[in-house]
Design the sequence.
């Protein structure tokens, strides 16, 4: 099925995204060595352009979704500018783009602004579409994996546990030869959603061992700091006795920690990270098509990896233009499809949205329409 229509985008929007997206329907939409992403057999295609901006955490996933959609829909052009979550939300609220990607759902004040931006005083929708496990990585010669309870992890990053052979670490790693070596925790130097979610986890799961409020900025004077997940990964890899936190796609060959949950230690995987989303309630007070989550970082559910970052696609429930509504609806339906979620997971190590939640989200995307 093809949806008609065309819209001209401003040069400002186009310049920011051309490095990320390619000409519609072109094989150049794929990076070198990338296989064409799978698409559903009943994929709905549109004609014309769709614009989005926001989270850089979902940049690689968005590249994959754009490539898959454009290769299947030769007359569609999807443009996404990874300018950061805050800037993306601002552009959406100012009607500069059709949808936004964000590491945070719209807050109450932004929801009020969205009613002015969307048609017929309609609300916006927060659609969780990309779940990124946050890995705890370390570089310790001869050690590939560790078990770390949340309290121990918090005391390491709070600089209270300073040696790798500390009894608090050794207790849960009895078969591991831990050296008498200084621990060098590496934190982010820039404000980030990864830090916000990591500190939210520590605050929820570690109790008094982490006496700091959740924040996108590292709350104490760092031992070592680096910009971006790639910067932390490089700093951890180049050091010895280093430990840091990164999005799962940046783990490379570094050691990773299994995290204490209830009475077990859970290793990072797309499946184990997806379970925390399935068990997390939606934020109270929202309308039926709004799906902002209150992540249960303190979960004790078996097999659940609790340190994750969720990024949202933010759209209007009503658009002035029928074509705009149809384009947003068609593309987001692909993003949420089983094929779209698996394509992103194959490239980034993300956790596909659980099937039951995905069905609810697709119902909300299907409700996106035009006013009148």
Sequence:
């Amino acid at each position: 099925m093809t949806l008609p229509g065309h819209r001209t985008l401003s040069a400002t929007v186009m310049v920011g995204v051309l490095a990320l997206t390619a000409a519609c329907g072109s094989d150049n939409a794929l990076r070198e060595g990338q296989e064409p992403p799978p698409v559903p057999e009943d994929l709905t295609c549109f004609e014309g352009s769709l614009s989005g901006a926001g989270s850089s955490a979902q940049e690689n996933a968005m590249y994959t979704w754009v490539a898959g959609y454009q290769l299947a829909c030769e007359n569609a052009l999807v443009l996404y500018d990874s300018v950061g979550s805050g800037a993306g939300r601002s552009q959406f609220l100012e009607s500069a783009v059709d949808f936004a990607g964000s590491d945070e759902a719209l807050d109450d004040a932004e929801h009020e602004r969205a009613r002015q931006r969307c048609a017929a005083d309609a609300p916006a929708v927060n659609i969780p579409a990309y779940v990124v496990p946050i890995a705890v990585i370390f570089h310790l010669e001869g050690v590939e994996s560790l078990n770390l309870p949340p309290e121990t992890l918090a005391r390491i990053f709070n600089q209270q546990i300073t040696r790798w052979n500390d009894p608090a670490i050794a207790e849960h790693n009895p078969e591991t030869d831990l050296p008498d070596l200084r621990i060098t925790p590496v934190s982010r130097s820039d404000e980030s959603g990864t830090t916000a979610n990591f500190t939210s986890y520590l605050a929820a799961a570690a109790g008094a061992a982490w006496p700091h409020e959740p924040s996108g900025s590292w709350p104490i004077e760092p031992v070592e700091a680096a910009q971006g997940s790639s910067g932390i990964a490089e700093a951890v890899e180049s050091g010895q006795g280093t430990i840091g936190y990164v999005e799962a796609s940046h783990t490379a060959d570094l050691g990773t920690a299994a995290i204490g949950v209830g009475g077990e230690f859970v290793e990072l995987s797309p499946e184990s990270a997806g379970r925390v989303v399935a068990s997390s309630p939606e934020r109270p007070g929202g309308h039926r098509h709004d799906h902002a989550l209150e992540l249960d970082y303190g979960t004790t559910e078996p097999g659940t990896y609790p340190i994750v970052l969720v990024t949202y696609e933010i759209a209007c429930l009503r658009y002035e233009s029928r074509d705009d509504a149809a384009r947003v609806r068609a593309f987001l339906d692909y993003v949420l499809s089983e094929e779209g979620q698996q394509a992103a997971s194959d490239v980034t190590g993300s956790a596909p949205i659980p099937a039951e939640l995905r069905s609810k989200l697709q119902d909300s995307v299907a409700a996106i329409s035009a006013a009148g």
Observations:
- The chain has a mean pLDDT of 89.
- The chain has two domains: 2-131+282-292+309-370, 133-273.
- The longest helix spans residues 322-336.
